[in-house]
Amino acid sequence: MAGEFDRIQRYFMPLQQPPARPAPVVGNGDDALAVRTDQTLVMSIDTAVAGTHFPHEATPEQIASKAIRSAVSDLAAMGASPWFYTLALVVPTTYPEDWWDRFGQALALENQYWQMPCLGGDTTTGPSLVVTVQVHGLCERPLTRSGAQVGDDIWITGTLGDAAAGLAIALGQAPEQAALTQAFYAPEPPVSLMVELSSIAHAAIDVSDGLVADLGHIVDASHCGAQVAVESLPLSAELKQARAHSDALSLALTGGEDYSTCFTAPASQASDIVATARNHQVVVTRIGAIVAGKGLRLTQGGKPYFTDRKGYDHFV
Ligand code: ADP
Ligand code: MG
Predict the structure, then answer these.
(1) I want to staple 121 with a disulfide (CB 3.0 to 4.6 A). Which of 79, 87, 130, 290 is the partner?
(2) Cα Rg for the chain, rounded, in angstroms?
(3) Taking Cα atoms as reference points, which of 216, 221, 208 lies closest to residue 160?
């Protein structure tokens, strides 16, 4: 069986590809990484625990893509470009060599996809798999949750509810549907689009806990209210086929883990936003408006619409 040092050499040192730009002053393999940049550095760290964030049966490929993409989603929401990440692992000693090999190869593919190498990390053992990814991105001016203004349009990228339906499939509670499973394990955070829109958008957040919870964070931080017509929520054909309409709506509103971005922007920019999104091959949908007051008001056919759930919270 390979030791810790061998594994790091074999599986993690090669993950310094593709080369970070700008290059690190001291790369991986020393006591610490050293970097230098003139731009604003944006950092976010996320931990995923087997049995909590993904089922124990998840494949190494699924775990790798989910860990990287959910972390990249935070960079997208800040309007930052991925620069590099660091990786802390707790891996049970019972995991076979083949698991490490597949996990490393899957990470290498993610590195290419996001043009984001792994420049450091830590590897230990423990009772359950834990994957912690800290992403580092660069931007001129970070986009925040607190900049929404009355009169802004509210936009959402991609579709909502697919990942929650995918989780139900992964847990064996619903029949297999490849596109929905893919939405759970390999979301597509709209990085390049949000980098471009960061000079136009007023506020943004990634949809990780469900639209109701996450748009709620924007209105709280921005001291304003929001009105959203539920009939305008983008639902995929796959979700509409797999679930009854009311069920699909409820997953879209409170399901979470879509890792799309919800952003607000002046109504005057609407046609520019649609054109820019098309250039980045991202579907954007206007779902409502920022209004005076506080809280989120949902409507259906112009009448108030109520949801029973608020979104995912680990502590309640
Ligand atoms: P230290 O004892 O100084 O913390 P380690 O033995 O933990 O060093 O790690 C040795 C080197 O291997 C470090 O440069 C570290 O960045 C790298 N490394 C360890 N685990 C990982 C990993 N999972 N991914 C990437 N690099 C790793
Ligand atoms: Mg260490």
Answers:
(1) 87
(2) 20
(3) 208
What is the CA(123)–ligand 2 centre distance, in A?
A: 7
In degrees and rounded to multiples of 5, residue 256 shows phi and psi of 85, 170
In three-state secondary structure terms, 222 is helix
> Which residues, judged by CB distance below 6 Å to any ligand atom, belong to the binding site of ligand 1?
8, 12, 28-31, 87, 89, 118, 120-123
Ligand 1 atom closest to the Cα of residue 88 is 23
> Helix count (H) and strand count (E) of the chain?
10, 11
β-strand pairing of 152-157 with 284-291:
antiparallel
Asked if pLDDT for residue 309 goes beyond 80, the answer is: no
Residues with CB under 5 A from ligand 2 (ion): 122
d(CA 123, CA 73): 24
Sequence-distant (≥ 6) Cβ neighbours of residue 23 within 8 angstroms: none
Widest Cα–Cα separation across the chain: 64
* pLDDT, tens digit, 9 for 90 and up, residues 176-212: 999 999 999 999 999 999 999 999 999 999 999 999 9
Report how far Cα 249 is from the mean position of its chain's Cα atoms.
20
Tell me the HSE value of 253 on the side-chain side, using a 13 A CA sphere.
Answer: 23
Instruction: Dump pLDDT digits (tens) for 72-96.
Output: 999 999 999 999 999 999 999 999 9
> Hunting for tokens 């309640």 — which residue is that?
316
Ligand nearest to the CA of 88: 1
Asked if 20 and 85 touch (Cβ cutoff 8 Å), the reply is: no
Question: Which ligand has an atom closest to residue 87 CA?
Answer: 1
